[in-house]
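Lecture 7 notes: from sequence to structure.

We start with a single chain of 462 residues. Read the sequence below before looking at the structure.
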Amino acid sequence: MEAVKLTPKPKRQREVHKKKTSAAIYQTVWRWHFYAGLIFAPFLIILAFSGAVYLFKPQIESVLYHDLYYVEEKGDILPSTKQIDEVQKAYPETAITSIKYYDDPLRTAEIGIMTNGEMSSAFINPYTGEVAGTLSDDEKFTTIFKKIHSELLIGGTLANRLVELAACWAVILLITGLYIWWPRNKASIWGTVLPRFNRKGRIFWRDMHAVPAFWLSLFMLILILTGLPWSGVMGEQINRLATYSNTGYPPFSHSFGEKPESIVKTKDVAEDIPWAAENIPVPNSSVPGYVPLSLEKVTDIAQAEKIQKPYTISMPQGEKGVYTISTSHTKPGDNATLHVDQYSGAILSDVRFDDYGIMGKGITMGVALHEGRLFGVANQILGLITCLGLIGLIVSSYVMWRKRKPQESSGAPPKSKDSKVTRVVFFIMLGLGIVMPLVGISIIAVYLLDRFVFSKIPSVQN
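Now the structure, written as C-alpha cells:
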C-alpha cells in the first residue's frame, strides 16, 4: 500500500497561525492583568502608602513622642527593680509585663504594663525615676499605619485575608505586566526601558506605566514576598515548611528538660520576638518555692551572654513561667531569644541568628529588609521609592484606562476567540493558585460566578 505523503503547511500559513496564537495569548493575559488591576488597585494603594509611612517608624516616633522617649543624662542609672517600683507606684492597678533597654543613654526605659487587658508602655527616666507618662500600644501613630497595612485598620480574619489576597494578586500583576511589556518586534530602548516623553496621549501614559514597572518589578516582587511570612495563609504554610524541614528555628531549642505540659509558643508570652523564634515552645521554670531572681540578675545574664541592646526582658507568667530575653528590632545578626529559669537563672533555651536554618535566616533578613532596617536609611529610601513607584503605576494605569475607555463600556480588553488559548492561560493561573491558595480560591469563585450568575445578566455581559 502506497504511503500517503503529507504536505507541510506553507511557511506563510504557519507564520500567520503563530501570530494569531501569540495575539490570542497577549489578549488573554492582558485581560487578566486588566481585571486584576481594576479589582485590587485600591488595596495596593493602601498597602503602599501605609508601608511607606511605617518604613520611617524610628524617625516619626522620635519626633512625635520626644518628651516620652528622651531625657537628659544625669549620673548613674537606677536599678531596674527600682524603676519598676516607681511605675507600679504611679499606676498601682497595672501589671508589669516587660522592660526594654535601649543602647541610647538619652532614652527612657520602656516598661510594658497591662491595665484591664489593654497593653501600654510606661516611660521612666532611668536616672531620676520620674515617670514621663504612658502610651497605649494601639494608639501609637505608626501602630495605626501597621494595622492599616496588615489588616486595613478594621482588623479581623477577613481583612487580613483581603490584604494577603491583594499582595498575592500583585505578584500576578507583575508577571502578566512583564509579559505584556516584553518587546515582540525589533527592540528599542524607547518605550521599553526609557519612556517616550515626546509622545502624547495613550502612548505617553503607556510608557509612564510600563517602563517604571519594568525597573521597579524586582524591588516590588521582593517587597511583596518578604511580607508574606506575616500573612494568615501563606505565612502559615511558610512557617509549617520551615518547621517540618528543620530550616527555621534549630531542633536543639526543644532539648530543655521535660516538655511543657501544654505547648505555649514564645510569641504568646513575650515581646520583640524574632520571626524565626516565635513558635519555639516555652519551657517551665524549676519547681516553685524559691525566691524569683531580681531583674538585676537577669540583666547580668543578658550582659554575660552578650545580648545586644535594644533588648526586652519579658516577665514570667505564673509560678512555672520564665524570663524571656529577646531582641528583634535590630540588625538580624543580633537576634536572640533566651528563656531563663526565674528561680535558678539557668538558661533553658538560647537561640541566636547563627542557629537558624536557611529559611529562618532568609526570612529574618527579608523581614528586616521589608521593615527598612537591614541597611539603614538607604534601605528606607529604597523601600519608599518602591512604594511611591507602585502608587504611580496605579495612577498611570487609571489615566491610561480612562483615555481608552469608550462611553458606556468598561473598556476591558475583549475576550479572545481562541478557546484553547483561553483554557491554557486559565490553567496556568490555577497553577499559580496552587502556590498561592487564596488566589486559586478567588479564581475558582469568579469562574463559578461568571459561569452561573453573570452570564445570566445581560447588563453585566454588556
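The first helix runs from residue 11 to 54. Keep this in mind for problem set 3.
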